[in-house]
Amino acid sequence: IADNVPVTGVSLEEESLTLEIGSTSQLTATITPSDATNKNLIWSIEFPSEGKKSDDDPTSIATISDEGLVTAVSLGEVVAIVTSEDSEFSASAEVEVTGIMVTEVSIDQETAELNVGETLQLTTTIVPEDATDQSITWSVDFPSAGKNQESTPEEIATVDEEGLITAVSAGEVVVTAQSSNGSVAASLDVTVSNVAVTSVIISPTEVSIGVNESIQLSAAIAPENATDQSVTWSLSMEDLAGRVLTAAPTVDTYLEISEDGLLTALSLPCAGCAYKVTATSTNNQKTDQIDVIILVPVTALTVFDDDEEVGSSIENCDDIQFSVTVTPDNATDQSVTWSIEDNPAFEIDDDGLVSHIDGHIFTEDVSVTVTVSANDGSGVTAEFQNNFTIYGECH
Fold it and tell me: Sheet of 157-159: strands edge to edge?
């Protein structure tokens, strides 16, 4: 094991420094002997002997890092001291900080009111204008009365190094601009408010839905920058006079809606019932409401002839009017489509009127196949034949 080589002395290359406020300078220490075992050094700042006061802090004038880098903070004189960890030999250098001190900091406004998500750029004025170090440190804090809050002020508003405030959530904070040496500062009160919802619009604006079908609804919030854009979906059932029905069976027998606005029809509607969907803003209870029609499908079609029974033989050139009865009678869409299958001698209109085509010469009995189809997508049809005994030409 090598013998310990003790430190016998410490010296500084610099005997004194003169620095302007905000500038830095690196001190260089030499340990004797050069092969000393423990070369660790301790750096400190003290007042000169004649300038010491119990309530003063020498680092308010200059600071020094663990590597001996001196930073000038404010006007005054101090002593930078380096001490060897081994044997406590020391050396010192006088440090004089010169320059023009900041005497006043002001912000371009005393208060600010922001909505959540908004920003505000603050500017400062330094007095005197030729102050040596004009850098500013920005910070945010709660007002004195609110400093016991469990949250942090940055949860309400933040401020960056350039004085740009960003509103985060509703509340009140104080933003402070402080001179780099901490000698003077200015503050402003910042109030952050939520952006209220002004309207809710459901899309689509009207819904027709079949049993066991689902439709995704959406709710558009205005304005677009509203703080809380969440909505609550609800269902209601009314009679035809607009009175809300609450007795069993209730609306949830017929419809259900998810938290995200997915609407599903569970069963056929009750007679005389009207259904509503409502979206309500969480922010301030603004609402929109739309009508919901639960579709009743067609289950059967029954065809009638005003003069003859369907399927009978017709022995003249008269037109034939067919009609249809839709089952059930409360089917939502009771419209139908009439058609004749591949017969160039006859045509049928939208109301079920069969007529011959002028100029067609009949030489034998004609069989006509007529089809009526429900238009509601149920796929229900009725098909029948009529026999026509016509010879010659119909006009």
Answer: 119-121, 164-167, 157-159
